Amino acid sequence: MQQSLRFKLILVFQLVALLPLGVMGTLYFDTLYKTLLASAERELQVGAQQTALWLDTFFAETLVNLRSQAQLPDFSSYLVRDEKYRRLSEPTLSILFKALGRSSNQAYIQSYMLIDPNGTVIYDQTQLSIGQNVATEPFFRQTWQSGEGQVTLTQSNETDQRYIYFAVPIWNEAGYKIGLLALRYNAGILRLLAWESANLAGEGSFAILVDESGQVLSWNRQIIPTLQRVELNLLADPQGIRRANLAGWTYAIAHHRLKNAPLHVLYVQPETAIDAYVISHLSMVLLISLGVLVITLLVALIAANRFSHPINQLTQAARRLMSGDLSARVQVHTRDEIGLLAQTFNQMAAGLQEEVEEIRNAEERYRQLSLSLEQMVEQRTMQLQKANSELESFSYSVSHDLRAPLRAINGFSAILQDSSAELLDDQGRQHLAYIRTEAKRMGELIDGLLALSRVGRHALRIQPVSSEQIKTLVQEIIETLHSNEPERQVEWRVNDLPPCAADLTLLRQVFINLLNNAFKYTRERSPALIEIGFEDGAYFIRDNGAGFDMRYADRLFGVFQRLHTESKYEGTGIGLATVRRIIERHGGRIWAQAEVEKGACFFFTLPPDVSTFEQLS
Amino acid sequence: MKTFWRLCLVVFMVTLPLGGCSGETNQQSLAVSQRTPLVIAVNPWVGFMPVVLAKEKGFFDAEGVNVQYVYGESSRQQRLEFEAGAYDGIMLALGSLIAVGAKAPDTRIVMLTDISTTGDAVVARPEIRSIADLRGKRIVLGAAGYGEVVVSVMLQQAGLKTDDIIWVPMQNESETLRMLKDGRVDAFQTWEPFVSRAVAEGAHVIFTGADIPGLIPDGVAFHGEVVQQRPDDIRAFLRGWFRGVDFWLANPSEAEQVISQAVGLKPEELSLQGLELLTLARNKEFFRKGEDFSSVYYAAQVYVDFFLRKGVLSKSLNLDEYIDASFIHSLP
Q1: Of B92, B97, B190, B95, nearest in space to B140 by CA
Q2: Which distant-in-sequence residues (6+ apart) come within 8 Å of B158 by Cβ?
Q3: Are residues A425 and A476 in the same domain?
Q4: Are A472 and A564 contained in the same domain?
Q5: Which residues, in sequence order, are bridge partners of residue A166?
Q6: Residues 340-379 of A with CB under 8 A from B
Q7: Among A22, A149, A186, B165, which one is least packed by beta carbons within 10 Å?
Q8: Is the whole model's pTM more than 0.80, yes or no?
Q9: Residue A110 and residue A210 in contact, taking contact as beta carbons nearer than 8 Å
Q10: Same domain for A507 and A364
């Protein structure tokens, strides 16, 4: 989450910085490109103009100088002098021309010449053309006809050597043309002048000098090895940047026509150099953009960190809180929304901590309490168990120990009745009989108590008991009961009894006690009806005997608790307590339903198999 | 759409140097013949022929420089073309190399090829018996070149002034030889092999460089641009050159044959009699400051002073820059 927030912040910063830049760039790129291109082309134009200016200046200056030199009297006097005497003036002319030629251009000056009106060369510094007639040469014709100084370019027929002729008329004092002063330059001077203007418009730019016929006089041999002619359309006005192929490369070409000579300057630059110029400037713009990008990236990073740091802190604190460290707090002290959030978070955490601590304290108190309660219960239970077992062993030992004196009372009272009854009066005999009855009853009571305590002490031997076994067991008990009172009319209904898991001895005891009760309390019924069966998960023994009042049902299963008088129905009040004890030890339940004088029904449950018993216990 | 591609191109050009792979080709990795040639103008002067020898013997290739010499009979034309940037370097007499400074002040003299003795001479028609006979005669010599100094010194020795003769500016050597033969001019200041050719046609020598010892050294100069941008090429050129010189001095006949075959000079025109070819050791001696002609600085100053006086140079040359001794002294 913190990553994406930082990323978003950076993205937003970049967008904010780059969107205007991008929009500007897109909008103005074309304009910028065209401006740069135009600037490069303007430089090219300037190069052409500058070169042309230098050349024109050279031509003009040389012509002006020559015009003033032509006014020297030595030349006019030499021209009009008789041929025979000219030789005498030669040393003077030689010195004169040597002096006139002295300049930094001297190496390029080929010769000074004097030419008479017929076109015959009468003086040539180099001696080469003396006596030759140049009347048909353009430089002579044009100068002579116009009467003005002329610049003419020629090319030697034998060699490809080019010359520049500067020629001015020589006037006599009367104002007649008496001849020409001509100055022959090596055309190499143009190359030199053009060479000096190289790189005016940047790397790789240079001037090409072309005459009217498209013949190239000068170019840059270093860049273009050979270049003899250019297309004539390059020399056509109007001026403007053209693009043309020269010796295999595309050049941008600015054209400028010379004023003082029939020459053209083509100022050229390889298109790649112009591209490089444009690209270098555009690159600068791009680099600046990159710089802005980098700076905004840095700013965005810093800002993103500054913004995301408190949020990170909050997140971490929240995580700590989540993992249970309620002491987690945020150290953010900015005065913005995040600061407020942090403050609120801290308050929340503090509140949470308080409440949770309260809950914990309460829990602790509750735990302590429940612990002491448990201990108390355990203690009580132990005390109870101890008391119970003490009681049981007490009642056992009492019952057992009481039997010996009881046997004595019973035995001696029997001997007394048998042997000495006639010695007693009726009241005495009556008392004796009473003693014997009560002793017998006491014996029964003791037997009952012993049985009850046996049930408590008896180690259970749980085994599966089949339906047949139960039925057999019931039949045996019924037969025993019948044999005791054969005169009684009792209808026994023994239904199907499902199997169960039980201690067989104790199960027999249960059926003995319950059937005994049923048999006993139906004594006044004729016929008596006793039903044994199984219903809704419980065994039952139902009779149509005396029944009892359901209000006293809770007392039914207590020890020595009786609902009927001893005189009416004999019994010790221990039987049902014993049954309940047995059923409960088996994990079962016992209860009864009854109505006075209509009958009673005892229900009890037993575990259907051994595993159920084990679960219950 | 065009704009888009331009933008792509710009991005490409900008990222190219960032990627660290510049498109610059490495000269060193190219075969010698494919490297940018070092173009040097050479006239037939014997003292310049070691360049032919070294080239033919492959010494330059061995040193890793693609030397291309341009052989031409007109030293004057070569000089003008050099000034207009047609060549990287040129071989001329020291005086002419100084005069070049009038139009191309950014020139650097890096080596002396030789000291001319009888190889430089003034030849005259038979009727000119002595230097004194030249008074009022037509004598051909190159304008704004070392010849002016030579002739000036010669005339001084005979008690003449330069204005005592008729100066005929030299156009080209073979034309001048013709004019000398048919008497249109009387004398010619020139050098071998033209001296021998003039003598063969009836002229005779009236003055030689031996009369003014040390005044006529010859040398090699390059444009300052070349010196700056290709110092390794120039060093390699000098190493190859001196191997040529050493080879020539050790095997003169083989050297003459090789040169003769290459440029068509006759073997007898290649005699080393009229000059001293300068070895590297001798060059090191000359490229020291000194107060006589055993120092190139001294000799050069003589020419500078002369051309300043005559208006050929409009301003003085800074010889500490114009003469670049660093190459000679950097060679072992």
Answers
A1: B190
A2: B130, B131, B132, B134
A3: no
A4: yes
A5: A151, A183
A6: none
A7: A22
A8: no
A9: no
A10: no
